[in-house]
Write a structure and sequence with these properties.
This protein is α+β, with helices and mostly antiparallel strands and 63 residues long. The chain is built from 1 helix and 2 strands. Helix content is 24%, strand content 19%. It has a two-stranded antiparallel ribbon. Strand 1 (18-23) and strand 2 form a beta hairpin. It is elongated. Residues 44-63 are annotated as: Disordered.
């Protein structure tokens, strides 16, 4: 398989990244990443990017 470099979690139409499973009982579709470790890393990177640029601690109010 040709290994593609991913920088973000791709759309579910990417069949090289996702495994599609169908449940006939409730007619639902579930998408599972083929490489769970890669998926975990991409989720971590996305979370870092969505956090504020500078982290700061709130100071306690002085009376």
């Amino acid at each position: 398989m040709n290994q593609q470099q991913y920088t973000a979690i791709p759309d579910t139409s990417d069949n090289q990244y996702w495994i599609r499973t169908l449940n006939s009982q409730d007619r639902s579709t579930t998408f599972v990443p083929r490489d769970k470790e890669l998926h975990r890393l991409l989720k971590q990177n996305a979370k870092k990017l969505s956090q504020p640029a500078s982290s700061y601690k709130k100071r306690a109010k002085k009376d």
